[in-house]
Specification:
This protein is α/β, with parallel strands linked by helices and 358 residues long. It has 15 helices and 12 strands.
Length: 358
């Protein structure tokens, strides 16, 4: 079997789901692809556990779930020793998997690619930094070794769809979709006449939102996903150019989370009015991302109830792509929330690198 080293960066919900899926899929990968993934390092914000291979993966994940940092455990590598260890691992037949939510490891991952390693992103921050970083990571030198399906649609193949259209030299004219399972849950609930604040609180209580629900309601997560697809389509755009309309008033921006949740009802009337106006025109409200060569924008939009976007329910995401060949848009739809779905997308990217690049 071909041994492929894995450097896992970030061991939270998604990172843990990726690690466990790698382990539970070992026999399948061996039988179907003759590939054996072996953990060379697991890293959190405090340091890394490194081995040839790391054998106590489940023990480390359980420590993280108990709220511990790797720096509290024996044999953790930190500082300049860690930096050198990461550089030593940057070589072919090793895949760095970014399940963090930081852009602070851009240098580590750039060096990994430059050294011949593969990089798989669930994290959006680095891919939506300066376009020069995105261009370098996805350049022809690194083609196929940098993959990021789960940064946009969790496990739904939105990135693969756009990449294949580009590979066929088919010009993309427009992208339109909904890229947040959380906001999908909230907006499809509005169709039933429920209050906006009630839906926000239910999404929060159900664990659908980030610890601070404003991280979802701000629209920034959707904006990052739209920018990644825009850049993949060949449109050179910066994050600062994306027009983002958030879903809460600015006077609630600086409150504590409990205070925010107790006052979000102040926004109910404005949302209800938009909902009523949409319904009068046989439309529904959805949090929509739109991108074209002219620019990128995300916000609450009225869309026909009978359209693919309008017909969405629950946490599903959808992407419509219009191109020369797909004059009638190509539509891709799938579940857009959950660590397990995201982990599946990450693992599929890893297998594609392992089987196609070395």
């Amino acid at each position: 079997a071909r041994s492929i080293g894995v450097v896992l960066l970030g061991c939270g919900n998604v990172g843990a789901a990726v690690a466990r899926r790698i382990q539970s899929s070992a026999q399948h990968h061996l039988a179907a692809y003759n590939v054996a993934f072996q953990f060379k390092a697991l890293m959190d914000s405090s340091g890394a556990q490194i081995g040839q291979p790391v054998t106590n993966v489940e023990e480390l994940l359980q420590a993280k779930e108990q709220g511990k940092h790797f720096s509290e455990l024996p044999d953790t590598v930190t500082g300049s020793t860690l930096k050198q260890a990461m550089e030593d691992l940057a070589q072919p037949n090793t895949i760095f998997v970014d399940c963090t939510a930081t852009d602070g490891i851009t240098d580590v991952l750039t060096k990994a690619l430059d050294g011949g390693a593969g990089v798989v992103f669930a994290n959006k921050k680095i891919l939506t930094g300066p376009s020069s970083v995105f261009d370098h990571m996805t350049s022809s030198t690194n083609t196929g070794r940098c993959r990021f399906e789960s940064s946009v649609g969790a496990g739904s193949p939105f990135v693969a769809t756009v990449a294949r259209i580009r590979a066929a030299n088919d010009t993309i004219h427009a992208l339109k979709g909904t890229f947040s399972g959380t906001l999908g849950f909230i907006t499809s609930g509005l169709d039933e006449g429920r209050a906006f604040s009630e839906l926000v609180k239910e999404a929060y209580d159900s664990g659908f939102t980030e610890p601070d629900p404003r991280d979802d309601l701000s629209g920034m997560d959707v904006a990052r996903k739209a920018l990644i697809l825009s850049r993949l389509s060949g449109w050179h755009q910066e994050m600062s150019q994306v027009k983002v309309d958030g879903l809460y008033p600015t006077n609630l921006a600086d409150l504590s989370v409990p205070d925010f949740l107790s006052r979000i009802h102040e926004h109910d009337a404005a949302i209800a009015q938009q909902q009523a106006e949409a319904a009068a025109n046989d439309c529904v409200l959805r949090y929509v991302a739109e991108a074209s060569p002219e620019g990128c924008q995300v916000g609450l939009r009225a869309v026909p109830a009978s359209s693919p976007i309008g017909a969405l329910r629950g946490t599903d995401n959808i992407l419509n792509v219009t191109s020369d060949i797909y004059a009638t848009p190509l539509v891709v739809q799938g579940s857009g929330a959950g660590a397990d779905i995201t982990a599946a997308g990450v693992l599929a990217d890893m297998v594609e690198i392992a089987t196609a690049r070395w």
